[in-house]
Each structure stands twice: as C-alpha cells, then as structure tokens.
C-alpha cells in the first residue's frame, strides 16, 4: 500500500485522532496539545486528511464525526517500508547491519 505523506502538522492532528479513534472537532481541539491551533486551522487540516483518506467523516446533524481510516500501525509500517526502500535497498538486514556498525 502506498499512502500519501503527512506534513508534521497533519501528523500531529492524526496522533490526536488515533488516540481518540473517532471524534468530533471539539474533541480534537480539547485533546490537542498546547499551543492549540485555531479551530478553523484544524478544520482545514481535517479536510486535507479526508482527501488523503487517513480519516472518514459521518455527518450527524450539523456536525461531523471523524473516524480513523488508516490505523497508526499501518502508518508506522508504511513509513518503515518507505525508509527501507529509500535508504537501505528495501533490506531490513542492511538497516540492522548499519545499526550494529554504528553502535
């Protein structure tokens, strides 16, 4: 699976959503660490995360409930695979050898 990369801000918002599993905007704002971004900024990032298919949204009346679409474990695995492919010829053995050599 090839997923879109996240910016550091997108990843921070995803960390909040992953910790909640599903949430409304107000829940995300409450759980976001200080300094908290403006609510409109978070709304914009939620739209981007929807486009990148990291989250899904269900409309409940006038508000949306956001749910995780890509688990944190799947995200971690993809990041590791991309790192191995880019820097170690897709070989975890090469990575371990480098770590041992650098000790």
Structure description:
The protein is α+β, with helices and mostly antiparallel strands and 103 residues long. Helices cover 58% and strands 15% of the residues. It contains 5 helices and 3 strands. It has helices at residues 8-20, 25-31, 39-51, 72-87, 92-102; strands spanning 22-24, 55-60, 63-68. The chain has a 3-stranded antiparallel β-sheet with strand order 1-3-2. Strand 2 (55-60) and strand 3 (63-68) form a beta hairpin. Helix 1 (8-20) crosses helix 3 (39-51). The chain starts with 7 loop residues before the first helix and ends with a helix.
Descriptive key words:
3 strands, single chain, three-stranded antiparallel β-sheet, alpha+beta, 103 residues, elongated
